[in-house]
Amino acid sequence: MSARSPFGALSPEQFLRDYWQKKPLLIKGAFSTALAAITPEELAGLAMEEDVESRLVQHDPVSKQWQLQHGPFKASTFKKLPKENYTLLVQAVDHWVPEVAALRQAYHCFPQWRFDDVMVSYAVKGGGVGPHIDQYDVFLIQGLGRRRWLVAESSITVIPNPEVSALRQIQPFEPSMDVIVEPGDVLYVPPGAPHCGTALEPCLTYSVGFRAPSQADIVTRLAEWLVENGIDGKRYTDPDLQAVSDAALIPGQTLQKVRALMQDLLQQPALVERAFACLVSQTRLPLEPPEQEISVAKLKTALGKNKLLERNDDARLAWFAGADGHVHLFANGEELDVGALNSNSAAFLCNQQQIDGSALNEFVSDLAFLPALAMLVNRGVFSL
Ligand code: SIN
Ligand code: CO
Q: How far, in Å, from the CA of 5 to the mean position of ligand 2?
Protein backbone atom coordinates (compact mmCIF):
# COMPACT_ATOMS: atom_id res chain seq x y z
CA MET A 1 0.00 0.00 0.00
CA SER A 2 1.66 3.22 -1.05
CA ALA A 3 0.13 6.62 -1.62
CA ARG A 4 1.68 8.43 -4.58
CA SER A 5 -0.02 11.80 -4.23
CA PRO A 6 -3.49 11.62 -2.75
CA PHE A 7 -4.45 14.57 -4.99
CA GLY A 8 -2.90 13.27 -8.25
CA ALA A 9 -1.35 16.09 -10.24
CA LEU A 10 -2.66 18.71 -7.80
CA SER A 11 -0.72 20.02 -4.83
CA PRO A 12 -2.55 19.96 -1.48
CA GLU A 13 -2.84 23.77 -1.79
CA GLN A 14 -4.46 23.53 -5.25
CA PHE A 15 -6.83 20.80 -4.06
CA LEU A 16 -7.86 22.87 -1.03
CA ARG A 17 -8.31 26.03 -3.08
CA ASP A 18 -10.35 24.56 -5.96
CA TYR A 19 -12.12 21.44 -4.63
CA TRP A 20 -12.24 21.09 -0.82
CA GLN A 21 -15.86 21.77 0.29
CA LYS A 22 -16.56 23.02 -3.25
CA LYS A 23 -16.54 20.45 -6.04
CA PRO A 24 -16.28 16.68 -6.50
CA LEU A 25 -13.02 15.42 -8.01
CA LEU A 26 -11.90 12.12 -9.50
CA ILE A 27 -8.22 11.38 -8.88
CA LYS A 28 -7.02 8.49 -11.06
CA GLY A 29 -4.27 6.26 -9.66
CA ALA A 30 -3.80 8.13 -6.38
CA PHE A 31 -3.01 4.84 -4.61
CA SER A 32 -1.35 1.63 -5.71
CA THR A 33 -3.64 -0.74 -7.64
CA ALA A 34 -2.63 -3.44 -5.16
CA LEU A 35 -4.17 -1.55 -2.22
CA ALA A 36 -5.29 -4.29 0.16
CA ALA A 37 -5.58 -2.90 3.67
CA ILE A 38 -8.29 -5.46 4.50
CA THR A 39 -9.85 -8.43 2.69
CA PRO A 40 -13.61 -8.91 2.17
CA GLU A 41 -13.44 -11.95 4.50
CA GLU A 42 -11.80 -9.89 7.27
CA LEU A 43 -14.44 -7.19 6.80
CA ALA A 44 -17.24 -9.76 7.14
CA GLY A 45 -15.49 -11.05 10.28
CA LEU A 46 -15.48 -7.56 11.78
CA ALA A 47 -19.19 -7.16 11.00
CA MET A 48 -19.84 -10.20 13.21
CA GLU A 49 -18.26 -8.52 16.26
CA GLU A 50 -20.43 -7.02 19.01
CA ASP A 51 -18.53 -3.70 19.29
CA VAL A 52 -18.36 -3.01 15.58
CA GLU A 53 -20.94 -0.80 13.83
CA SER A 54 -22.02 -2.35 10.55
CA ARG A 55 -24.88 -2.28 8.04
CA LEU A 56 -26.06 -4.57 5.28
CA VAL A 57 -27.99 -2.96 2.43
CA GLN A 58 -29.80 -5.11 -0.12
CA HIS A 59 -32.14 -4.11 -2.89
CA ASP A 60 -34.26 -5.54 -5.65
CA PRO A 61 -33.69 -3.52 -8.84
CA VAL A 62 -37.04 -4.64 -10.27
CA SER A 63 -39.37 -3.83 -7.35
CA LYS A 64 -37.01 -1.03 -6.18
CA GLN A 65 -37.39 -2.33 -2.61
CA TRP A 66 -34.47 -1.60 -0.28
CA GLN A 67 -33.62 -3.41 2.92
CA LEU A 68 -31.32 -2.13 5.68
CA GLN A 69 -30.06 -4.39 8.47
CA HIS A 70 -27.75 -3.46 11.32
CA GLY A 71 -24.95 -5.72 12.63
CA PRO A 72 -23.56 -7.64 14.38
CA PHE A 73 -24.30 -10.32 11.77
CA LYS A 74 -24.26 -14.09 11.95
CA ALA A 75 -22.22 -16.19 9.51
CA SER A 76 -25.53 -17.72 8.39
CA THR A 77 -26.75 -14.26 7.23
CA PHE A 78 -23.74 -13.93 4.95
CA LYS A 79 -24.15 -17.49 3.64
CA LYS A 80 -27.73 -16.75 2.56
CA LEU A 81 -26.85 -13.61 0.59
CA PRO A 82 -27.63 -13.53 -3.14
CA LYS A 83 -24.91 -13.13 -5.78
CA GLU A 84 -25.88 -9.55 -6.63
CA ASN A 85 -27.28 -6.27 -5.26
CA TYR A 86 -25.99 -6.08 -1.72
CA THR A 87 -23.32 -4.16 0.16
CA LEU A 88 -21.85 -4.52 3.62
CA LEU A 89 -20.61 -1.30 5.27
CA VAL A 90 -18.43 -1.24 8.38
CA GLN A 91 -17.74 1.96 10.31
CA ALA A 92 -14.45 2.99 12.00
CA VAL A 93 -12.43 0.13 10.53
CA ASP A 94 -9.30 2.25 11.21
CA HIS A 95 -9.87 1.51 14.91
CA TRP A 96 -9.62 -2.25 14.35
CA VAL A 97 -7.14 -2.62 11.49
CA PRO A 98 -3.78 -0.75 11.58
CA GLU A 99 -3.35 -1.08 7.78
CA VAL A 100 -6.65 0.78 7.34
CA ALA A 101 -5.60 3.40 9.95
CA ALA A 102 -2.45 3.93 7.84
CA LEU A 103 -4.60 5.22 4.94
CA ARG A 104 -5.23 8.36 7.02
CA GLN A 105 -1.59 9.34 6.64
CA ALA A 106 -2.25 10.27 3.01
CA TYR A 107 -4.48 13.07 4.33
CA HIS A 108 -2.16 14.44 7.01
CA CYS A 109 -2.40 17.95 5.51
CA PHE A 110 -5.92 18.24 6.97
CA PRO A 111 -6.47 19.03 10.67
CA GLN A 112 -6.76 15.77 12.61
CA TRP A 113 -9.75 17.16 14.50
CA ARG A 114 -11.67 17.31 11.18
CA PHE A 115 -11.23 13.55 10.65
CA ASP A 116 -14.06 11.19 11.55
CA ASP A 117 -13.34 7.60 10.54
CA VAL A 118 -12.50 5.21 7.73
CA MET A 119 -15.58 3.27 6.71
CA VAL A 120 -15.04 0.24 4.49
CA SER A 121 -17.66 -1.26 2.24
CA TYR A 122 -17.80 -4.49 0.30
CA ALA A 123 -20.30 -4.70 -2.53
CA VAL A 124 -21.15 -7.34 -5.13
CA LYS A 125 -22.35 -6.50 -8.65
CA GLY A 126 -25.26 -4.04 -8.44
CA GLY A 127 -24.55 -3.33 -4.76
CA GLY A 128 -24.62 0.18 -3.28
CA VAL A 129 -26.57 2.40 -0.90
CA GLY A 130 -28.41 4.29 -3.65
CA PRO A 131 -28.52 8.03 -4.39
CA HIS A 132 -27.94 10.20 -1.29
CA ILE A 133 -26.08 13.14 0.18
CA ASP A 134 -23.77 13.17 3.20
CA GLN A 135 -22.78 16.04 5.44
CA TYR A 136 -19.15 14.92 5.27
CA ASP A 137 -16.15 15.57 3.12
CA VAL A 138 -15.24 12.11 1.95
CA PHE A 139 -12.42 10.53 -0.03
CA LEU A 140 -13.72 7.28 -1.54
CA ILE A 141 -10.64 5.17 -2.21
CA GLN A 142 -11.31 2.24 -4.50
CA GLY A 143 -9.51 -0.82 -3.15
CA LEU A 144 -10.85 -3.69 -5.21
CA GLY A 145 -13.04 -4.05 -8.31
CA ARG A 146 -14.75 -1.43 -10.43
CA ARG A 147 -17.57 0.82 -9.34
CA ARG A 148 -19.66 3.32 -11.28
CA TRP A 149 -20.19 6.66 -9.57
CA LEU A 150 -22.76 9.28 -10.48
CA VAL A 151 -22.02 12.59 -8.76
CA ALA A 152 -23.48 16.09 -8.93
CA GLU A 153 -22.44 19.40 -7.42
CA SER A 154 -23.77 20.45 -4.01
CA SER A 155 -25.65 23.36 -5.61
CA ILE A 156 -28.28 21.18 -7.37
CA THR A 157 -31.69 20.79 -5.78
CA VAL A 158 -32.33 17.32 -4.40
CA ILE A 159 -35.64 15.68 -3.59
CA PRO A 160 -35.79 13.24 -0.66
CA ASN A 161 -37.09 9.76 -1.36
CA PRO A 162 -39.44 9.06 1.57
CA GLU A 163 -39.77 5.41 0.48
CA VAL A 164 -36.14 4.82 1.46
CA SER A 165 -35.81 7.27 4.34
CA ALA A 166 -33.85 4.80 6.51
CA LEU A 167 -31.05 5.09 3.96
CA ARG A 168 -31.59 8.86 3.62
CA GLN A 169 -32.01 8.33 -0.11
CA ILE A 170 -32.85 11.05 -2.57
CA GLN A 171 -34.61 10.77 -5.94
CA PRO A 172 -32.38 10.00 -8.95
CA PHE A 173 -30.51 13.19 -9.90
CA GLU A 174 -28.83 14.64 -13.00
CA PRO A 175 -25.12 13.83 -12.57
CA SER A 176 -22.33 16.14 -13.67
CA MET A 177 -19.87 13.26 -13.31
CA ASP A 178 -20.44 9.69 -14.50
CA VAL A 179 -17.26 7.69 -13.96
CA ILE A 180 -16.00 4.16 -13.44
CA VAL A 181 -13.38 3.93 -10.71
CA GLU A 182 -10.76 1.19 -10.53
CA PRO A 183 -8.43 0.07 -7.74
CA GLY A 184 -6.21 2.98 -6.66
CA ASP A 185 -8.60 5.70 -7.87
CA VAL A 186 -10.07 8.20 -5.41
CA LEU A 187 -13.31 10.12 -5.66
CA TYR A 188 -13.59 13.21 -3.45
CA VAL A 189 -17.17 14.17 -2.60
CA PRO A 190 -17.85 17.43 -0.72
CA PRO A 191 -20.70 17.75 1.80
CA GLY A 192 -24.12 18.02 0.23
CA ALA A 193 -23.05 16.71 -3.19
CA PRO A 194 -25.48 14.01 -4.42
CA HIS A 195 -23.72 10.74 -5.22
CA CYS A 196 -24.56 7.15 -6.04
CA GLY A 197 -22.06 4.33 -6.36
CA THR A 198 -22.94 0.98 -7.92
CA ALA A 199 -20.53 -1.94 -7.96
CA LEU A 200 -19.88 -3.42 -11.40
CA GLU A 201 -18.19 -6.43 -9.81
CA PRO A 202 -17.09 -7.35 -6.26
CA CYS A 203 -15.74 -4.10 -4.80
CA LEU A 204 -14.00 -2.82 -1.69
CA THR A 205 -14.20 0.93 -1.04
CA TYR A 206 -12.47 2.82 1.77
CA SER A 207 -14.26 6.06 2.77
CA VAL A 208 -11.96 8.46 4.61
CA GLY A 209 -14.48 10.85 6.14
CA PHE A 210 -14.04 14.33 7.58
CA ARG A 211 -16.81 15.80 9.68
CA ALA A 212 -17.81 19.39 10.26
CA PRO A 213 -20.07 19.89 13.28
CA SER A 214 -23.36 21.73 13.03
CA GLN A 215 -24.63 24.41 15.43
CA ALA A 216 -26.88 21.74 16.96
CA ASP A 217 -23.87 19.43 17.51
CA ILE A 218 -21.90 22.22 19.20
CA VAL A 219 -24.81 23.42 21.35
CA THR A 220 -25.55 19.83 22.42
CA ARG A 221 -21.92 19.30 23.45
CA LEU A 222 -21.91 22.69 25.21
CA ALA A 223 -24.99 21.70 27.22
CA GLU A 224 -23.35 18.39 28.17
CA TRP A 225 -20.16 20.24 29.09
CA LEU A 226 -22.09 22.61 31.40
CA VAL A 227 -23.80 19.66 33.11
CA GLU A 228 -20.52 17.70 33.44
CA ASN A 229 -18.89 20.72 35.07
CA GLY A 230 -21.87 21.58 37.30
CA ILE A 231 -22.25 25.03 35.74
CA ASP A 232 -25.75 26.53 35.79
CA GLY A 233 -24.70 29.89 34.43
CA LYS A 234 -26.78 32.99 35.03
CA ARG A 235 -30.51 32.64 35.59
CA TYR A 236 -33.34 34.65 34.05
CA THR A 237 -34.39 37.41 36.48
CA ASP A 238 -37.37 39.84 36.47
CA PRO A 239 -37.28 42.21 39.47
CA ASP A 240 -39.32 44.67 37.37
CA LEU A 241 -42.21 42.22 36.76
CA GLN A 242 -45.64 43.88 36.38
CA ALA A 243 -49.08 42.30 36.88
CA VAL A 244 -50.25 40.75 33.57
CA SER A 245 -53.65 40.40 31.92
CA ASP A 246 -52.64 37.42 29.70
CA ALA A 247 -50.88 34.99 32.04
CA ALA A 248 -49.80 32.74 29.15
CA LEU A 249 -48.16 35.36 26.96
CA ILE A 250 -44.37 35.61 26.87
CA PRO A 251 -43.84 39.24 25.81
CA GLY A 252 -41.37 40.25 23.09
CA GLN A 253 -39.28 42.13 25.67
CA THR A 254 -38.84 38.93 27.69
CA LEU A 255 -37.81 36.97 24.58
CA GLN A 256 -35.23 39.66 23.87
CA LYS A 257 -33.89 39.30 27.41
CA VAL A 258 -33.65 35.51 26.93
CA ARG A 259 -31.70 35.96 23.70
CA ALA A 260 -29.34 38.39 25.51
CA LEU A 261 -28.95 35.87 28.36
CA MET A 262 -27.94 33.15 25.91
CA GLN A 263 -25.63 35.46 23.97
CA ASP A 264 -23.96 36.36 27.27
CA LEU A 265 -23.31 32.65 27.89
CA LEU A 266 -21.89 32.11 24.40
CA GLN A 267 -19.61 35.15 24.77
CA GLN A 268 -17.78 33.79 27.81
CA PRO A 269 -14.12 33.10 27.02
CA ALA A 270 -13.19 29.48 26.33
CA LEU A 271 -16.69 28.10 26.75
CA VAL A 272 -18.00 27.43 23.25
CA GLU A 273 -14.37 26.83 22.27
CA ARG A 274 -13.96 24.09 24.89
CA ALA A 275 -17.22 22.41 23.97
CA PHE A 276 -16.16 22.54 20.32
CA ALA A 277 -12.72 21.06 21.04
CA CYS A 278 -14.30 18.29 23.16
CA LEU A 279 -16.70 17.52 20.33
CA VAL A 280 -14.17 17.42 17.51
CA SER A 281 -11.56 15.44 19.44
CA GLN A 282 -14.13 12.80 20.38
CA THR A 283 -13.73 9.38 18.76
CA ARG A 284 -16.40 6.76 18.16
CA LEU A 285 -14.58 4.36 20.48
CA PRO A 286 -12.82 5.46 23.67
CA LEU A 287 -9.09 5.07 24.26
CA GLU A 288 -7.91 2.19 26.44
CA PRO A 289 -6.06 3.58 29.47
CA PRO A 290 -2.96 1.63 30.60
CA GLU A 291 -3.42 -1.09 33.23
CA GLN A 292 -1.19 0.83 35.62
CA GLU A 293 -0.92 4.60 35.90
CA ILE A 294 2.56 6.09 35.61
CA SER A 295 3.82 8.88 37.88
CA VAL A 296 5.65 11.92 36.54
CA ALA A 297 8.86 10.73 38.27
CA LYS A 298 8.64 7.22 36.76
CA LEU A 299 7.96 8.67 33.31
CA LYS A 300 11.01 10.92 33.61
CA THR A 301 13.17 7.95 34.62
CA ALA A 302 11.85 5.82 31.74
CA LEU A 303 12.51 8.52 29.13
CA GLY A 304 15.96 9.12 30.68
CA LYS A 305 16.69 5.41 30.08
CA ASN A 306 15.97 5.82 26.36
CA LYS A 307 12.48 4.32 26.52
CA LEU A 308 10.28 5.45 23.63
CA LEU A 309 6.68 6.65 23.85
CA GLU A 310 4.55 5.59 20.90
CA ARG A 311 1.32 7.37 20.04
CA ASN A 312 -1.84 5.26 19.85
CA ASP A 313 -3.49 5.22 16.37
CA ASP A 314 -6.82 6.08 17.99
CA ALA A 315 -5.56 9.15 19.83
CA ARG A 316 -7.18 12.38 18.70
CA LEU A 317 -5.66 15.53 20.12
CA ALA A 318 -6.50 19.19 19.77
CA TRP A 319 -5.34 22.34 21.50
CA PHE A 320 -5.92 26.07 21.39
CA ALA A 321 -4.61 29.18 23.07
CA GLY A 322 -7.63 30.61 24.86
CA ALA A 323 -8.58 34.26 25.20
CA ASP A 324 -8.09 33.56 28.94
CA GLY A 325 -4.34 33.32 28.23
CA HIS A 326 -4.19 29.57 28.86
CA VAL A 327 -3.43 26.62 26.66
CA HIS A 328 -6.38 24.22 26.52
CA LEU A 329 -5.55 20.66 25.48
CA PHE A 330 -8.04 17.93 24.57
CA ALA A 331 -7.64 14.20 24.11
CA ASN A 332 -10.45 12.05 22.70
CA GLY A 333 -13.30 14.27 23.78
CA GLU A 334 -12.00 15.45 27.14
CA GLU A 335 -10.05 18.46 28.32
CA LEU A 336 -6.89 17.72 30.32
CA ASP A 337 -5.90 20.04 33.13
CA VAL A 338 -2.49 21.01 31.74
CA GLY A 339 -1.91 23.97 34.10
CA ALA A 340 0.39 26.58 32.61
CA LEU A 341 1.59 24.42 29.69
CA ASN A 342 3.10 26.64 27.01
CA SER A 343 1.98 26.60 23.41
CA ASN A 344 5.21 25.10 21.99
CA SER A 345 4.83 22.16 24.34
CA ALA A 346 1.15 21.73 23.38
CA ALA A 347 1.96 21.76 19.66
CA PHE A 348 4.73 19.20 20.23
CA LEU A 349 2.62 16.86 22.38
CA CYS A 350 -0.29 16.94 19.92
CA ASN A 351 1.73 16.24 16.79
CA GLN A 352 4.38 13.68 17.70
CA GLN A 353 4.10 10.06 16.67
CA GLN A 354 6.95 9.11 19.02
CA ILE A 355 8.54 10.89 21.99
CA ASP A 356 11.98 10.01 23.33
CA GLY A 357 14.30 11.28 26.07
CA SER A 358 15.44 14.29 24.01
CA ALA A 359 12.08 15.94 24.81
CA LEU A 360 13.19 16.17 28.46
CA ASN A 361 15.94 18.64 27.49
CA GLU A 362 13.95 20.40 24.81
CA PHE A 363 11.07 21.26 27.16
CA VAL A 364 13.03 21.48 30.42
CA SER A 365 11.94 25.10 30.97
CA ASP A 366 8.22 24.21 30.85
CA LEU A 367 7.36 22.76 34.27
CA ALA A 368 3.93 21.69 32.98
CA PHE A 369 5.39 19.57 30.14
CA LEU A 370 6.10 16.30 31.97
CA PRO A 371 2.86 16.32 34.01
CA ALA A 372 0.91 16.88 30.77
CA LEU A 373 2.80 14.03 29.07
CA ALA A 374 2.12 11.75 32.06
CA MET A 375 -1.60 12.61 31.77
CA LEU A 376 -1.52 11.67 28.09
CA VAL A 377 0.18 8.36 28.90
CA ASN A 378 -2.38 7.66 31.63
CA ARG A 379 -5.22 8.28 29.15
CA GLY A 380 -3.71 5.83 26.66
CA VAL A 381 -2.69 8.51 24.13
CA PHE A 382 0.96 7.39 24.34
CA SER A 383 2.32 4.08 25.54
CA LEU A 384 5.78 3.00 26.61
C1 SIN B 1 -19.75 3.05 -0.16
O2 SIN B 1 -20.72 2.42 -0.59
O3 SIN B 1 -18.63 2.55 0.05
C4 SIN B 1 -19.86 4.51 0.07
C5 SIN B 1 -21.18 4.86 0.54
C6 SIN B 1 -21.40 6.34 0.40
O7 SIN B 1 -21.54 6.84 -0.69
O8 SIN B 1 -21.50 7.06 1.41
CO1 CO C 1 -22.15 8.79 0.68
A: 23
